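Continuing from yesterday's entry. The apo prediction looked reasonable, so today I'm repeating it with S-adenosylmethionine included to see how the binding region is handled. Same sequence as before; SMILES copied from the compound registry.
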Amino acid sequence: MTDVRTILRQAAEALGDRLEAELLLAHVLGVNRAWFFAHADDELGTDATAAFGGLVRRRAEGEPVAYITGTRDFWSMTLEVGPATLIPRPETELLVELVLERLPAGGRVLDLGTGSGAIALAVAKERPDASVTAVDFSEPALVVARRNAERHGLQRVRFAASNWYSAVVDERFDVIVSNPPYIESSDAHLGQGDLRFEPSSALASGADGLDDIRRIASGASAHLVDGGWLLMEHGWNQGQAARSILERTDLMDVFTAQDLEARDRVSGARLAVR
Ligand SMILES: C[S@@+](CC[C@H](N)C(=O)[O-])C[C@H]1O[C@@H](n2cnc3c(N)ncnc32)[C@H](O)[C@@H]1O
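Holo prediction written out below.
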């Protein structure tokens, strides 16, 4: 028998990451991480010890913690994630903030490529007045997104299978938001770390990583109300390219916003008010 403090220390050493060890043990025990403060001297049973050992091995072999535990925190929610969905990243919260700044009362939002539902659900949670539509071409991802909506009492979010705008042909929105795939298809990172386990259809987007940004930008003006905004996440080195794509559309007021690390992260533009 081993106590919680010792087993956590050993796992943290093996993984080189204390937080990951805590997340995995919290998952096995069905507790939150704060529990460890008061229970460091508790003895772990043999079943829990064996189960934890199995998860630490999976992590040591590279599987992302979020796929092992089946959850990832985003905004103020714990979301279900799985091999069909991208694991939501903290930097994507910037997109949510930019949507909330621009969404008028009772406004309509379209989240293109919703994955686990992260962006759509965060906006719907903050803005009960908003009408939120979320699409993805991955049916398995939509199954997870719908479960997340239910888990957070946000069933009013409308989910649809769609190849970008194909399911919303005649609709217009106040804000279109997307965290599309934007990695160059030859990028070596796709074969490394957590990215190896995530769906490549959620990550890669042609030779320069910008194919989907071009598609979304070119379709936006037909789906925005006058004055409506398009906001897209991209890589830290794609700000200038994203702006020049937007400048070639009939959108205006093109801008790039930076994330907490002062790196280009989101570019956007809006349809003129006629
Ligand atoms: C980078 S992930 C973003 C997921 C989620 N919005 C987030 O931020 O965590 C991109 C998403 O776009 C979806 N996608 C890729 N190509 C698409 C297409 N042509 N039409 C609709 N969705 C697409 C993928 O299935 C994936 O869920």
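Comparison notes:
- Residues 86, 88, 92, 113-116, 118-119, 135-138, 141, 162-164, 179-181, 201-202, 212 surround S-adenosylmethionine (CB under 6 Å).
- The longest helix spans residues 46-60.
Will overlay with the apo model tomorrow.
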